[in-house]
Amino acid sequence: MTAVGPAVRPMRIVVCIKQVPKAQELQVDPVTQTLKRVGVPSEINPPDANALELALALKDRHGAEVIVLSMGPTSFDESLERAIAMGADRAVLLTDRILGGSDTVPTAYALSETIQKIGGFDLILCGEETTDASTGHVGPGIAGHLSLPQITYVSDIRIMEGKVRTRRTAEDGTEYWETAMPALCTVNFGCNKPRTPTLTGKIRVKRGGLIVHWSCADVGIDPKKVGLLNSPTIVAKVDTVKLPPRAGRIFSGEPKDAVRALLEALIRDKVIAR
Amino acid sequence: MTEGHGLEDKSHFRGVWVFLEGRAGGLRDVSTQLIGEGRRLADLRGTPLTGILPGRDVDALAERAIGYGLDRVIVVDDPMLASYRSRPYSHVMAELIRRHKPEIVLFGASKNGRDLGGRLHAILETGLAADCVKFDIDSEGNLDMIRPSFGGKSLAHILCKKHRPQMASVRRNVFVAPPHNPERRGEIVHEEVALTPEDNDAILLEFQEFTKEGGLRPEEADIVVSGGYGLGDPKNFAMLQELADRLGGAIAASRKAVDSGWVPKMLQVGQTGMTVRPKLYIAIGISGAVQHLAGMQEADKILVINIDAKAPLFEIADYGIVGDLFEIVPEMIRQLDALKASASAARRALPAEVR
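Predict the joint structure of the above. Result:
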């Protein structure tokens, strides 16, 4: 895990991405009250797309090799191809049946091992969280495994004199951090506008050879540390939420009358003060 | 690489811990709220409740924290811990957990709480459930960690059966803070954790506090006036602000309004934004995607204003007006002003001694 300065070779940035069902397309089945997943189109997890854009902007500014890493079934190639078409140099997909059902602990472990196999990295970027599981645990988990400096919730990254300067959105304000490389940052959802794939990018994808598939054995991942059975947490059951019934009083008529009736009700119910 | 201890005999693990976060000399709301829930869980398990407070000169804060229901506070005092930093804080927490073996560790799902919990659960190789909204103890004594999945339409019960501690994060305003009892006595324990120069791996160059312009933050407000894509233009949020000002509330927004670049992300309510639990949530021009519900369905009362009578949000409304928000909202502002004027006129009409 040695970082070679940008003077020797271009900086190497690994961007971790996940393919998720498109958030806008998610709909609840009115009968079963569960999420309809079948036939829902996929996308790069939107915060991960912001992380990728940040990496590509650093590549534009400083020159860098951007490697996209994902873990999942081979259908994730769709997102990796898109990432390459956007400007990433190459991609690695960690794909193995034994990884199925991994929670954030094995996922962070497996990605860490894969990042070490890629080697020579200066910066690791992740989205702040995924839109499907929304834990935000994997990025900090990778930093913990690899014992790297970690800056989460970052909107901007500058490389200055071989160090990483970041702008972080904290609870009560904006923080500016400086840390040595290699480092891991998680990137704020919506902090930039991910670029669209270019024609040259698409041609590079068509030519092929830029995505490699690795199994756990290829990477040297301990099978006893991954998968559903080796995950600390299990989902014991899922309840459908029955929201408490609400009064649902709809005020209609001319805006003036509707608003008057509404305000009277709000005051009577002591929801707003007179 | 990392030395996990998740699979040790779990019967050694005892006690409920709450990671305490300070803010401007006090405790963060989420920390006091967690003490209340932690107290309940500790009583259910028949174990003590401990607050963990890494920091610098924080004894007064530890003393105050006890008043919310803690039995003791473990303080780790070090200049490197003066403000939150990932590595020294996770180093301290990992060391304390290995030393004392708590059964349950709760974190606020604040930016720093998530940063810490995520790093820590990988170092300790134990389970961490994010954004829990409810806890129970199951028949085997495990912590049943209940969290919304899929934007709040269902609740997943997460168990961490073999690994300890069982860790979970909770967003602000999910639990209600217990009253502070200044008479309550507890123990303050100072512990040493040897931090090394390697722990000093990131430097905070600058901090710019969010300005309080426009008054309240949505999480702190009793009334939240929230705007969605139906507003059509960022400048229309000024109208929402006017309404919020008259109600003493704060403005917020849906993800679609934020994605459109109309308002900053820090105003976003929903799964990828904040959770609010106001007395009144006014949703204006928001249709109500499941991800939005996740952030506001716990409001005491919900008022929906939308031109589309089929907007899903009407299904959970206490009050609603189907109509053009550009007519309704200005009318609300006008009538609220008129009410205020008549109220103050009535007060003026009273004799001075009654006033």
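The mean pLDDT of chain A is 91.
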